[in-house]
């Protein structure tokens, strides 16, 4: 008895998470994500899946980031009719993320002169197949395969997936592992029962600043920005990062660490995502944050915060005199409403732009980070006289040492036959694999796209196609 594990995405790359696990009778996918580069629409996105979508029994989703869910509507369009299992918060968030992606894909496709990858009807087809699966419930999902989810502390609802065969052979796939401790989420749970472990390695070779330092730095940067007297722009990632920013701002203001100035949440998606965080906060946050939620109803609101979902409300921000903070997407300044604010305010030397996340090569955010004094936004050149600040440590991913701790915890009881380092750049995956081997004495494998491995309780072997 064995399980087969194939890597069809997220091997040697951070994005495009897609793994196939097969028993003798059943086929289960874990994640069906979008590959993301400088350009969302890449040639390989449009190609066929390397497996028959109609033959897949079920899909289990680790979390709602686009690089883990973004190709689900295409899978449905290609004939997948099985169930899609995910935690209740992940279901709500994936619904928002997928509906939002329809517009982005349509826009990109128009520029490239081709049909979009999928449309709203495909997304709705996916919703009809979704079935909620709570953490810590063993659920048969396909002939000869059952699934069990555990919290990974990455974003709200994120889970690792343990898939078990009939004889108890187990494969655990981590999805993304959180930057614990988080002020909102419970720390990641160990997975001490894998015969084979597939773990993420995005920051497998880097360390984050300490959590205390990242809050202090953010406060310092904000205080300086307010002192400069101009508008403060924060390009924000809608999911998790925006909620963390609101949470910290709320704390700073209520502790009177910053003077009270109006804050605008100018992102329709981030506003909806924040509502999902409020909906599940009293049951899916860590105990302290849950208690705070029950007492205060929301951790993300404060008296002079204004959400501006409609275009009209967004336009009215301009009329507000005096200093203000504007939080708007997209996080790398590559679209969304932030571009308009940047065009308007970056030429003003009193403005401060605060970046709180990874800026991919080729994006306007990255160019500003590298010191460009002029960028193109919406087809127009924009002169940058504003101060550009970069605040590190707000990533939702575990760093080098935390990943090693995760691997060590996975080895504590039942030693996996092998640990695969996936979902990272090739050099990072190799670095983490080397450390797992050297420090923990475990067999670590850097998987390649298209490889299939046979997993039993006694061995892990590559299957030659
Ligand atoms: Zn993620």
Q: Determine the N-to-C terminus distance.
A: 19 Å
CATH architect. name of the largest domain: 4-Layer Sandwich
The fourth-level CATH homologous superfamily of the largest domain is: Ribonuclease Z/Hydroxyacylglutathione hydrolase-like
Beta-strand portion reads 15-25%
Bound small molecules, by name, code or SMILES, are:
zinc ion
Q: What is the level 1 CATH name of the largest domain?
A: Alpha Beta
Any idea what the shape is?
A: globular
Uncertain stretches:
none
Strand order of the largest sheet: 6-5-4-3-2-1-22-23
Structural class: alpha/beta
Q: Write down how many β-strands occur, each being a DSSP E stretch of 2 or more residues.
A: 23
Radius of gyration: 22 Å
Largest sheet: 8 strands, mixed
Average pLDDT works out at 94
Number of helices: 14
Fold-level CATH name of the largest domain: Metallo-beta-lactamase, Chain A
